[in-house]
Amino acid sequence: MSSAALPTQTLAILVISAATVVGVQQDVIQPSSGFALVRDSTLVVLQGRVEIQEPGKGFAQVTRNTRVAVKDSVRTGPDSMAVITYFDGSTTEIEPDTTIQISRLDKRPDGGRDISFRQEAGETWNRVENLSDGTRGFETTTAASVALAHGGSEYRVRLDASKQTVIEAVTDTVVVEALLNGQVVDVPVDPGFRTLMYVGKIVPLVVDPGQSPLGPEPAPPAPVSLRIDIDGPVAPWVTDSRNRSVGFQPRTDVYASQIPGARYVVMNGGRQVLDLPDPVDRYTLVLNGRGGGGAYTVTATAIAKGQAADGRSFGLVSVLRNASYTGNAGDGQSHQSVVNVDASSFSTNIGPSSPLPGRPPGSGAYVSGQKGRTNNVLTDSGVLVAMCRPTGNTRGPYDRIGVASDRVQARVALGEFLATGGVCPS
Fold first, then answer.
1. In this predicted structure, what is the pLDDT of residue 247?
2. Cβ count near 360 (within 10 Å)
3. Is 103 exposed, middle or buried (0-12, 13-18, 19+ CB in 10 A)?
4. Which of 150, 154, 163, 400 is the most buried (most CB within 10 A)?
5. Are 140 and 123 in contact (CB under 8 A)?
6. How wide is the angle at C-alpha 96 spanned by C-alphas 153 and 216, nearest 5°?
7. Distances in whole angstroms, Cα of residue 30 to Cα of each of 19, 44, 46, 72, 137
């Protein structure tokens, strides 16, 4: 299986916000769903009241999607959320009652990055974009620790009222540095694990004089998660009732992750799986036809403490039950359906789908020019079949394309052929 780790070439950041297409260099219009290009790290309000403080000034409410700079502080109010997209495409989703301050936003001469922010309170969900040099260059600092992440990493950082820091790795190893007994200790946190730290103390790691810290503990599974399985040549985009999204944004053709703890993987055989922990009451699912389009099947299943919950009981109530529907989307055609979740009865329903009326839901900023576009990700992971299409150009005689499996024979009749090992002749 593989996760959606998309390498980046930084060109510009595409902001999904309100009504129309507006070209600007720094600030853009208030969220809904138009397009604008900016060239700086950008703060987007997802929901509620979000404030920014520039050096030497007081906090002011954010009313527009706004450029952020070093030493700016951002805080969210109760039931309020925001996301920062950095110049390289990495993102920090900021949960309610959270405060962070930007420490570094440096583009290195070798094409690398040096991004750092200090988290004073609350919870963040961080996705680090892949870069060609493979360096870390992305960190979150707290009073107790520093989390250092490679490209492709997704991790969450939470500070509670007692200033305990919880760092949980979701898709790749995160190295946590802490000052312990006057010495810096490196604690690798592998996917599915977490470490808990106070200032000067690592919990549950046990440190005795002359001994090394013990390893982090497994992160406990969410009491209930929503799993969405997708079979067919379509790319998913899920937006929850708090305006947070995960998947492939249909208009920008790039991957985003704004829902804390969400995981997107492609299983052997090409089945796509989205895991959404601690589900909210409502999700909008958009499926965009790719590789010529075709038939698809969507199934929603509850996961109770890491186990499929279809037809089971959880405690004294019935948990989310399996629900599914089928559809057919043409290439580039978007279908929309709604997943309703009733937390009181732990029940759900999903679909059927219908053509998307207008713009897709969600808000956010996206970096254009990414190497890992939707078709490439779906082809590399087996959802689509890799084929070679003649270009008539001797400098590049073939383009690699992604094709739905039931359309391969028709493409062969047009002179195209299967890519050997996923690669076309040069």
1. 94
2. 20
3. middle
4. 154
5. no
6. 40
7. 9, 8, 10, 20, 30
Q: Exposed/middle/buried for 280, CB within 10 Å: 0-12, 13-18, 19+? A: middle
* Distance (Å, whole) CA 101 – CA 344: 38
Nearest to 375 by CA among 335, 353, 403: 403
3-state secondary structure of 409: helix
Task: Give the list of residues 6+ apart from residue 371 with CB closer than 8 angstroms, or none.
Answer: 6, 7, 8, 9
Query: 385: closest CA among 349, 415, 361, 421?
Result: 421
How far, in Å, are 109, 231, 273, 274, 297 from residue 324 at the CA level? Answer: 50, 11, 14, 14, 7
First to last CA, the chain: 28
pLDDT in tens, 159-177: 987 778 999 999 999 999 8
pLDDT of residue 141: 94
Distance separating alpha carbons of residues 260 and 293, to the nearest angstrom:
30
How many residues in total does the chain contain? Answer: 426
Buried b (16+ CB within 10 A) or exposed e, 207-216: eeeeeebeeb
- Name the stretches of the chain with pLDDT < 50: 5-11, 17-37, 205-213, 310-320
**Tokens 């956010």 found at:** 364
pLDDT digits 0-9 by tens, 286-342: 999 999 999 999 998 877 766 655 444 434 333 445 688 999 999 999 999 999 887
CB-facing half-sphere around the CA of 208: CA atoms within 13 A: 1
Please classify residue 143 by burial: count the beta carbons closer than 10 Å to its beta carbon, then call 0-12 exposed, 13-18 middle and 19+ buried: middle
Closest alpha carbon to 410 in 389, 383, 392: 389
